[in-house]
């Protein structure tokens, strides 16, 4: 098994290393064969040349004899032609035998000797390099010996020609010439035979030598080849064994590696795993071998992980990242994973090394905790707080919402240290930290920035600065109260208070230091104000918020302290006969006196207290209905129901319960709702109204014309009454618009079958105008002002049945 990011050594190189000896053998054999052929061709050429030489010499002899007889120049010419052949060979040989061989002349000589032009280079080669060898030496010596006879023949021929050219030869002369010629021929013939024989012998011997040489070389090279092949086989087997050992070693090494080594295929299926990887994940080897990476890697989305692996397997680089592995028992491990893609047997694999870095992570977290947290309380320190605040500041600026920073300083903390000792002081700080943290939202941050100084970051309180300030104050107050509660440390009940400075952000060009400084300054003012209090950095905001906050707190107590009072304002018909009354709440503040609803109902709506107030008024109204004297027993009482109260879960049940408990007749109860109730979930509102209407309760639309009006919804509501808002009544009949509007409202209401109540009727003129338009009912100071409950009840009680249609005195 070989793993690695790169391919093994180049196959071409390996091939060359293996075959080069065989190539060499072939080249040597080929060379030897070509050389042998060259030698043999040359020898054969000499043999052929010798044949031509002998024939030419014989022919020259015959031509010269013929010439003696015929005296014909043709014969002489033939003689010259024939004698030229051995002369050419001689010329070639002499040229080659020179110290500096004359190759050109040699070539020309051999051509003259009628040797084949393609053989001549081989002949020259053989002569130059082998003339001194025993094989060639003998024929060359014989050939050299024959030179004299060739020359003698030539000389004799020339002499005969010379003689014949000038005179006729005598018989004797002719005979003498013939005798000389025969004599030369007799001398040269044995030499030619010897030359021929010697060449044949040389040729035969060279054939023999070359054959033997080739056989020898072949055998030698075969032996070499065999040796080399054997060596290769041995080497290959050694290498294979080595590879085998290496693979076994690798596998053993892999399995015993201390890191969690494992090999995946491109589909994330495990191919091999080290023991430590199995142990790391808590699986046996058998179990893990059938698993896929998505079964233990829980950091990535499975599909995303598989896609990533597939893509990565075709790359060629190492990759390292952190991930999370899940053990068999479900516990999680922080892992540093190193990947190396490899190719094995044409298959893409990924070599993975998982290192458990849980401890290191914990250590890093510990280091980070030390760097960014207060060691005593474990809270974020100033550095981390600064980071959080800067981020929160940026978010607030981007999304236009508001947050706040609270600067909390414990009052007279030094006394605790002095009296109880520093360890007790430390314990107290820890408990304070716990109390602060437990009272804040998850998104808030509390930090200890110095000895007994804490800061709290309250981000994203509201998109409205005022509401954000109110929320900040509410939280700060909760913290102040929480801290003021006794803290038990080692059986000691410690009492500590805190002064809190509040700064709302963002404001123009603020940064961390400025915000912290503002909160610090505000905290300092709280100290000066007598401690155990909270103060806003901005005076104006402080006054406004404090006032509102105080009111909210006081209103909360108002219900418990029975400070709410019920007032009733009677309603009359056209003739001025009392037909009912509207219940109106008042707050009898212990110090500020009577507070009208306009001053606290909006706040109650904001804080949700309007539900409790509404419940109180409704209960009181129902009790009143059930207690009405006989003279007023046909009266109806109208109760204002805020949209928030109406939509409160359980509102219908509450109404039913109050009716049941009081015994009031629902037919004498009118619920005044506003058009704003229809803004949210109109269908549900209409359904709930219908449920109550089915009980006999009537509905009136208060302040009609001032809000959201959808006639299509109005038509579907179980309505009985419309109340024309006093803002429209104020200026009638002088204001043409209001007059026209009231006219329209009345016409529409009558068309739909609703009774109309005009409210805020203060003058007779207003009354007359409304009456002229057909308005049925009236409410206003012209008839009755709102009266305290008991006073109103007393007046009602004094009504006589037959006087019930008379105007009651105020
Ligand atoms: N959800 C609840 N809202 C309530 C409740 N009690 C009162 N309110 C709402 O508070 C607003 C102010 O009420 P109030 O100060 O009581 O004023 C009422 C009358 O005093 C006043 N009125 C009546 N006649 C005249 C008049 O001739 N001149 C004049 N200037 N004021 C007059 O009108 C108010 C009654 O209005 P309405 O309720 O719209 O019929 C007021 O909006 C109340 O609804 C409560 O218990 N729950």
Automatic annotation (TrEMBL):
It catalyses: 3',3'-c-di-GMP + H2O = 5'-phosphoguanylyl(3'->5')guanosine + H(+). It is an enzyme of class 3 (hydrolase). SUPFAM superfamilies: EAL domain-like, Nucleotide cyclase, PYP-like sensor domain (PAS domain). Coiled coil: none annotated. Residues 246-304 form the PAS domain. Residues 401-539 form the GGDEF domain. GO terms for molecular function: cyclic-guanylate-specific phosphodiesterase activity. It holds the Pfam family PAS_9. Residues 317-369 form the PAC domain. Keywords: c-di-GMP, Membrane, Transmembrane, Transmembrane helix. Its EC number is 3.1.4.52. GO terms for biological process: cellular response to nitric oxide. Residues 548-800 form the EAL domain. The chain crosses the membrane at residues 20-37, 208-228. Its cofactor is Mg(2+). PANTHER family: BIOFILM ARCHITECTURE MAINTENANCE PROTEIN MBAA (PTHR44757:SF2), DIGUANYLATE CYCLASE DGCP (PTHR44757). This is cyclic-guanylate-specific phosphodiesterase. It comes from Thiomicrorhabdus sediminis.
